[in-house]
Amino acid sequence: MADDASEDRTEAPTDKRRSEARSKGNVPKSTEVNSVLVLLCGLMLLKFFGPWMMRNIAGYTRDTLMMIGHPKADIAFAAGVVIKALIAICYICWPVCIGILVIGVIANLIQVGFLFTFEPLVPKLEKINPMAGFGRLFALRSFVEMIKNILKLVIIGFVAYMTVAGEFHKIIGLADTSVSAIFMFMVAVSFKVILRVALILLVLAILDFAYQRFEHEKGLKMSKQEIKEEHKQSEGDPQIKSRIKSLQREMARRRMIQEVPKATVVITNPTHIAIALQYDQTMESPKVLAKGKRLVAEQIKRIALENGVPIVEDKPLARSMYDKAYVGEGIPMEFFSAVAEILAYVYRLKNRKAA
To answer: In angstroms, rounded to a whole number, what is the distance separating the alpha carbons of residues 204 and 196?
Structure first.
């Protein structure tokens, strides 16, 4: 017999398994999605803020060169120039930096939602185990990553080549243009190349995210034995729960049987069903003290005989009332008339014996 630990994991993961994996930082995530969204965001920001950034760069460069040529330049003066240059760089780059930071956070939230855990940072021996690392090197995931990277390189190279080839007829005409025109042409072509590459990478990123989710679900799958063990831990052993319920039913049956001597009459079927009823002048309706089938019915009748409780056979009434009357409650109104006749009969018998 195969060991339970080696049983194939074919069952979908439970909510508890998913929650535990998430708390440990084990969530489906594609770095390609982050990279391509950051690339697209940076590209759009450069497209929008590019002219403003170029004007500021030119202005600060001019001012810096003029300060460097100052006749009283010394170390303190040079430090002031460096500080002003750093401030200028921060001022020029802040739109792009803030935009990339925000889109990076959004990309993570889109994939995994809000998750804060230090579990992935905890040192683990298997992470530095050479044999485990060697095994991961030749694992299926590593092979897929290699194929994916090669595919990206091929696609990027092809898209870049086709884009530049489409602009090749314009390159010859740049010989008679100014340096600024050549620069603007290079910027425009570079933007077109990067944009096309980014759109292709976006499609690949979506496919990679789908693959990462598939691998994540595959890694979380459970065996039937694991599901049973989890069920035992969360809700208790089914055998123990069944035993507890059995004991509870037995205790309830004993309490019910103990009430039989208080009954006014027992209605039977005659052998399969027995219903013990109690009634006095203070009750609005007869009350069911006990009921049962087969062995329990025999026990009810035996105790009734031992305690002098009258037993009346009425098959239709016993069958109907057994399914609709509950222990500890009054009988339904539809049985009032039939039960009243039986009680009247019982009281007549008692009166005769008393006489």
So the answer is: 13
Pull the structure tokens for residue 230.
């989890």
Q: Please, are residues 283 and 237 in contact by the beta-carbon 8 Å criterion?
A: no
For residue 70, count CB atoms less than 10 angstroms from its CB and return exposed for 0-12, middle for 13-18, buried for 19 or more.
Answer: exposed
**Residue environment code for 161-190, b if the CB has 16+ CB neighbours within 10 A, otherwise e:** eebeeeeeeeeeeeeeeeeeeeeebeeebe
Q: Assign 351 to helix, strand or coil.
A: helix
CATH of 256-354 given 3.40.1690.10, 3.40.50.620, 3.40.190.10, 3.20.20.70: 3.40.1690.10
**Residue 17's CB: how many other CB atoms inside 10 A?**
17
Phi and psi torsions of 274, nearest 5°: -145, 130
pTM over 0.85: no
User: What are φ and ψ of residue 176, in 5° steps?
Assistant: -100, 10
Q: Give start-end residues of each CATH 3.40.1690.10 domain in the chain.
A: 256-354
**pLDDT tens, 244-292?**
777 777 787 888 888 888 888 888 887 788 888 888 878 888 888 888 8
